Amino acid sequence: MKENDVLTKKVKKVSYKSLLIENIKYRTLLTKKYQSRKPYEKKDIKKITAFIPGTIKKVYVKPGKKVKEGDKLLILEAMKMKNELLSPTQGTVKTVLVKSGDMVSKSQLLIEFE
Amino acid sequence: MGLKQKSADLKKRMREAVKGGGTKAIEKQKATGKMTARERIMSILDNKSFHEYDLFVKHAGKDFNMDKKYLPGDGVITGTGTISGHPVCIYAQDFTVAGGSLGWAHAKKITKIMDHAMKMKIPLIGINDSGGARIQEGVNALAGYGEIFYRNTQASGVIPQISVILGPCAGGAVYSPALTDFVFVVDKVSKMFITGPEVIKSVLGEEISMEDLGGARVHCETTGNAHFYAESEEESFSQIKKLFSFIPWNNEKKAESFPKRGPKTRQYKIENIIPSDPRQPYDVRNVIKAICDDSEFFEIQELFAANIVIGFARIAGQTVGFVANQPLVLAGVLDVDSSDKAARFIRYCDAFNIPLVTLVDLPGYLPGVDQEHSGVIRHGAKLLYAYSEATVPKITVIMRKAYGGGYIAMCSHHLRADFVCAWPTAEIAVMGPEGAANIIFRNEIKNAENPDEMRKQKVKEYKNKFANPYVAAAYGYIDAVIEPSETRNFLVHALEISESKHEHIPDKKHGIPPF
């Protein structure tokens, strides 16, 4: 059942949910947008993710490699631009999840540090 | 050649030109379930009222062998006519001619009719059905779009501008509708996007259908780019005619007044609609119907940010704009989308001399990281800005909850509402009783033998003292506490005495709203 069908009165039966605001529980309908919102996740500095969808053009590191902050990790090509992803921290590469030629989506995990 | 021959020659030329892209192209258009541009104009306007302009305009393309091509009307039909006897300017892109693509002459025809609309101070209707810029004409096509956008902006708030999307409207072309007041879309016919599914796939590897990317439903539900959703072109046209019955012909006029008619009180009775428990939902649109003439409410953006309701109705024959929290959806909270939706509508009403009636029942703002990070501060500020800036009569009815920042934002006296009334069920407080008691009596609750019991008792105490309209009434923040059944009378009277309201805002070039 679509929430909007309820609004346009195409559906008679309505199943209310509750929404908590300032400690008060309200009986109401929730929107599709509200229900599909992304829960917040704290950024993990040890996880390198794709900031934009695109293609991996080159991978500079292998598992076990020690890197300094600012070292090149890989090249992610998107919108015809070659973007160098640099290490945000000092550490040791634990896993590399992509190889050259892979298409990646936004926020996809690429490299993990130990 | 005598007059007879010359007339015959004219008729022949006209016959050729009105054929548009020819029988085959017209059949193709029909096969996709679409009407032709000419049929669309005829369906919107009063019978036999259409007067065409620039039928014989020739396109300006010279490169790529374009000079050898004949494009009737250059892919757009323009002219004037009437809707319910009132004059309008109209244009319709003709997809059967070079895919309705926009070249220099095509754009020139559109800007000419736009200039005409501004000079005559009459509304402009644009029907979009175009493959986009005519690539063969290069930078001249881009120039054409720019000239249209500039005029849309100049005309904004002077004459009503509406856009009807009846086919593709892609790339730069989308920005003309986006600059106009109301956008009408039709299921399976309208398609609007900046970059299409093919580009998205090749660049980003994301696969999506045209309908899911920029179909009518998406723009009505998700993006908020469109205001009116219809299942068919005919339904869309009747929505357009209805809209024109509510709005004035330009910003110097008032909307046409109709004979006064009472609401359908047997069907819609406020007492039966509203649960007294502020946590229980109801459909606020029924309250509007219980108040307005003939119980006829013309809702705008029904499917987008449904936690706030906006639209036109009449009270004692006069058009008013309703803004109402909707407890049925997300408890009626304010958030990014609902603030955006209401703020733009308020500015529309203010620009076109339509009094605003605000119905208040909200728990406050929607909490959440996504809201904060989507800029609920800057979007929420739009609502405060729009209400504060509006100088049309502003009438506010507080029905139940009006807590915290939500109370201020929903056209309180502090934002210069002209009349604020509250029902006995109103709760005007700095926050909901549960939250307030938790803060004020924090220590008592923490140190009590039975904290839960103590909390309940303190919430009750707070409720008894503050969850009512009388504290705000004591400070004069509301003008009157009235029975819900008296609401219509209150509004009729308020509108009557604000008939010649005239308020000045400080001299300025323009304000800087938090766009």
Structure description:
The complex is a heterodimer of chains A (114) and B (515). Chain A has helices at 3-7, 32-35; strands at residues 17-21, 24-28, 47-49, 54-59, 66-67, 72-78, 81-86, 91-96, 103-104, 109-113. With 114 residues, chain A is mainly β. Chain A has a four-stranded antiparallel beta sheet with strand order 3-10-8-5, with no helix packed on it. In chain A, strands 7-6-4-9 form a four-stranded antiparallel beta sheet, with no helix packed on it. The termini of chain A are far apart. Chain B is α/β, with parallel strands linked by helices and 515 residues long. Chain B is 40% helix and 17% strand. Chain B contains 21 helices and 17 strands. Chain B is elongated and about 105 Å long. At the A-B interface, helix 1, strand 2 and helix 2 of A face helix 14 and helix 17 of B.
Please identify, by name, the CATH architecture of the largest domain in chain A.
Beta Barrel
Mean pLDDT metric of chain A:
87
Radius of gyration of chain A: 22 Å
The first-level CATH class of the largest domain in chain A is given as: Mainly Beta
CATH architecture of the largest domain in chain B: Alpha-Beta Complex
According to DSSP, the number of beta strands of chain B is: 17
Write the CATH fold name of the largest domain in chain A.
Answer: OB fold (Dihydrolipoamide Acetyltransferase, E2P)
What number of domains of chain B?
A: 3
Shape of chain A: elongated
Task: Report the structural category of chain A.
Answer: mainly beta
Strand content of chain B: 15-25%
Which percent bin holds the helix content of chain B? Answer: 40-55%
CATH superfamily of the largest domain in chain A: RNA polymerase II/Efflux pump adaptor protein, barrel-sandwich hybrid domain
Residues in helix, % of chain A: under 10%
As laid out across the biggest beta sheet of chain A, the strand order is 3-10-8-5
Which residue ranges of chain A are poorly predicted, with pLDDT under 50 across at least 5 consecutive positions?
A: none
Largest sheet of chain B: 8 strands, mixed
CATH superfamily of the largest domain in chain B: 2-enoyl-CoA Hydratase, Chain A, domain 1
Tally of contiguous helical segments of chain A: 2
Strand runs of chain A, count: 10
